[in-house]
Amino acid sequence: MNVTKTNHDEVSALLTVTLNKSDYQEKVEKQLINYAKNATVPGFRKGKVPLSMVKKQYEAGIAFEEINKQVSDALNNYVNDNKIRLVGQPVPVPMNELDYNADEISVGFEIGFEPEFSVDLAKFTAPHYKVEASKKEITQSIENMQKRFASKDPQDKATKDSYITLSIAQVVEADAEGEHNHPPKTVAVSAEQKEAFGLVKSQKVGGVVKLTKTQLTENEDLAKDLNYDAHELGHIHHEELEATVTEIYKLNLHELNQELFDKVYGEGNINSEDELKERVKKELDEYFQQNADIHFVNKVLESVNEKTEVQLPEAFLVKWLLFSNQNITTEEQAKEILEAEKSIIKNQIIEGRLFQDYDVKVDYTDVLAQAEVLVNNQLAMYGIHNLPQEEVQKYAVEMLKQEEQVRQISQEVAMNKLKDIVLEKAKKKETKISHDDFLAELKK
């Protein structure tokens, strides 16, 4: 068995796999003998079927299967042993009918691969912002804590400061058939939810407002105010809905005291308003800085992609698109699709090269740790900050039983490692900036 490589250019080649009959003949004959031992053919006892009869019926199929296996193994081994980074997958060269009885068989494959290049991150520079939380943002964050643990003061009628709890139920038509178990949806709205609040602010407890599925579908703001996403809208089975006011209340913010500090951060961890403000500022600064770091990394990678020349195996990719996608029937179609995808392919090649050049590796420990971070973030959204580590890990392990979750989290881990490398290697233009100005910069 032999594999030879004939380059077309720097990024494409023809690989030819050559098998001698001796490479596969012995294995084919062994399988035929096993078939003969176990074959059941009318007129012959089991194990007494003539080998010539078995060969006539099964030899071609067994031979082709063994040849395909050996060709595939040889191709993969050659690519791996020679560290060829393929772009697309090998495309077999059309050939006349394979003669498994020939003394020698040659099968050709067109391949496209990445060019040789490297990226020196130290040659790239981007703005690196130092973002600090303002007094206003710190105050707002603390007020959100007070709201989370606020008490309710019932009201007879709504004011601009009120919260209105609604129970939204689907109205089942009188002639509707089948079971209709559609639990009502509960949602609270305030003046911040302008569309929804405007519909119900004149109602008292027990008041009912008519809605329709069409109304929610066509009015995105109203649907958002009532916490309907596209998936939930799609599962409304009846056109008419009724929103019943079940509660009207004003929030009495929780007092800034030790009880609140303990509820948010655990007993004894925060002991004064000054400590609370300091802790909140630290958390906001860290969060803002994470975003600023990501912005810096993105800017560096944008610059890398713009300034790095990457030769693509375009002629090969046209062949690969035609071979691999039955919906692409002409060379013109393939070229149009390739033109639209060029920048994505280039970015993927550069990203892969960065992973290789800077030795970015991901193992299960990394993936589990990232899953635990995601679990903690989800719990924090519900005000849960102090769940024991073993419980967090149990949820994380459960999350990683899903293959798609493992793939996504592994990609996140790899990108996080690359982010750290870019932060370390690339040059920074350090600039202090307010959070508002930073948000304005992101919008650009």
What is the fold's blueprint, element by element?
Layout: E1 2-7, E2 12-20, H1 21-38, H2 51-81, E3 91-92, E4 104-112, E5 125-132, H3 135-148, E6 151-154, E7 162-170, E8 185-189, H4 194-200, E9 208-212, H5 213-218, H6 220-225, H7 230-234, E10 240-252, H8 258-265, H9 273-307, H10 314-324, H11 331-357, H12 364-381, H13 389-399, H14 403-425, E11 427-434, H15 435-443
Parallel strand pairs: 5-11
Antiparallel strand pairs: 1-2, 2-4, 3-4, 6-10, 7-8, 7-10, 9-10
What descriptors fit this protein?
11 strands; alpha+beta; extended; 444 residues; single chain; 3 domains; four-stranded antiparallel sheet; Trigger factor, domain 2; 15 helices; Alpha-Beta Plaits; five-stranded antiparallel sheet
Overall description:
- There is one protein chain.
- The chain folds into three domains: 2-112, Trigger factor ribosome-binding domain (Alpha-Beta Plaits), CATH 3.30.70; 121-129 and 271-443, Orthogonal Bundle (Trigger factor, domain 2), CATH 1.10.3120; 151-252, no CATH class.
- It is extended, with a radius of gyration of 33 Å.
- Helix 12 packs across helix 14 (403-425).
- It is built from 15 helices and eleven strands.
- Strand 1 and strand 2 (12-20) form a beta hairpin.
- The protein has 444 residues and is α+β, with helices and mostly antiparallel strands.
- The mean pLDDT is 91.
- The strands form three sheets. Strands 6, 7, 8, 9 and 10 form a five-stranded antiparallel β-sheet that branches.
- The chain has helices at 21-38, 51-81, 135-148, 194-200, 213-218, 220-225, 230-234, 258-265, 273-307, 314-324, 331-357, 364-381, 389-399, 403-425, 435-443; strands at 2-7, 12-20, 91-92, 104-112, 125-132, 151-154, 162-170, 185-189, 208-212, 240-252, 427-434.
- 52% of the residues lie in helices and 18% in strands.
